[in-house]
C-alpha cells in the first residue's frame, strides 16, 4: 500500500475513533477539473476518478481536515489518444505516479461560508505547500465545497521535454473542484 493511502486510512480511522464526522463524498454530484490554455484556447477537462475524505463540522470549521486523491490517468481531454498521451511519462507519468494528492494542514474560517485552506499538494512526486480560498454551504442536508487552486504545471514536471514549451500548453493550470458530501 502506498504511503499516502496508508496515511489517509490511518487519519480516517483516528478521526472516526475520536467521534469526528467524516463526510461521504457524493461522486455523482462532485467534480474535479483542470483548466488550462492550449495554443491560447481555454480547455476544461474533468478527472473521472477521485476520492475525498472530508472531516467537517460547520460549528467548528477550524478543526476541519481534508484529503483528496485524484487518479492522474483519468483526465478526460475528450479524445482517447490525447487521454493516453497525458498519462505518459512526459505528462503525468501515471504508471509511476498514479495519484495526485492534497492533504490539508490547516483550515481556517474566512467569514460566513468561506474558508482558507492550506496543505500539501503532491503531483508526480513533487510536493508543494499551497493555500486557496474555499466556499462552503449546506444544500439538501449535505455540505457543498467549491474552490479553485491555481498551479504552475512545470513546477510539478507536467509536460517534460518538448512539452516544456508554454506556447503550446500554458504553464498556468487551475484545478477546480465542486465536492458534495454528507453523512
UniProtKB/TrEMBL annotation:
The superkingdom of the source organism is Bacteria
Specify the signal sequence span. 1-20
What InterPro entries does the record point to? Lipid/polyisoprenoid-bd_YceI, TTHA0802/YceI-like_sf
Which residue ranges traverse the bilayer? none
Q: Which UniProt keywords apply?
A: Signal
Which residues belong to any copy of the Lipid/polyisoprenoid-binding YceI-like domain? 22-182
Xref: SMART domains: YceI (SM00867)
User: What protein name does the entry list?
Assistant: YceI family protein
